[in-house]
Amino acid sequence: MLNQYIFEFIGTLVLVLLGDGVCAATSLKRSKAQGGGWVVIALGWGFAVMTGVLIAGPVSGAHLNPAVTLGLAIAGSFPWAGVLGYIAAQMLGGFVGACLVWVFYKDHYKATADAPDTILGTFCTMPAIANPWRNFLCEVIATCLLVFTILALGTHGNAFAINNITASTGSLGAFPVTCVIMSLGMSLGGTTGYALNPARDLSPRLAHAVLPIEGKRDSGWSYSWVPVAGPMIGCAIAAGLYLLVF
User: Does pTM top 0.85 for this prediction?
Assistant: First the structure.
């Protein structure tokens, strides 16, 4: 499965490079995109996922998210033997992607050195209102919906036929998941920043901790369990509901 691990690494790297990249572009001082707002961020993350899926999909299936990998394994759609390798590749890809964002926007990070909260927000999520257990619940619900939808895309009810060839909505590739990510961001992202993905949050948080970023604050470790535990619990619930319903 080495090739699959490599493409999970590359796909997750690209996801975080473009996803954290849109956060940096709209937040950091003297960026031409500064002030772009939440809609731009939600669109940017959706297209970031799409790009990662287009790259990794043909080889690894483009999970790009430990919660997706675990959810698929629980649902019986992915072999357990590949779970740890996929997660390791995703976490490493997220770290490298975040480091590349810092390299790309280094001058703008320097210009934003007087706003450490803004800098942290370009790497990882923090809650709009700190209420850890409600924040945890938000991540559980949003990730549950994400994984359940991904599983549902492959069902017979989402199938269609062209020239007597049957295909599922999921076989269209990146576009359906892109739409789901954008919808989650616009509808359910306002409380926590919709991490949904430990490789999108914990890995960039580690990058923030180790990179020599001028003016940075602590990396928000007291909150860091929420965007890890929430998605992992949410994906397990989604898989259980999928098995129950379908």
Answer: yes
Q: Which residues pair with 162 in a beta bridge?
A: 165
Per-residue tokens: 87: 């997660």
* CA 21 – CA 157 distance, rounded (Å): 36
Contacts of 164 (CB under 8 A, 6+ apart): none
Task: Give the domain extent around 238.
Answer: 2-245
What is d(CA 99, CA 111) in angstroms, rounded to the nearest whole number? 18
Q: Kindly state the tokens that stand for 195.
A: 């991490």
If one counts the domains in the chain, the total is 1
- The CATH number of the domain holding residue 45 is 1.20.1080.10
Contacts of 207 (CB under 8 A, 6+ apart): 95, 98, 99, 102, 123
Q: What is the pLDDT of residues 189-223, one digit of tens each?
A: 999 999 999 999 999 999 999 999 999 999 999 99
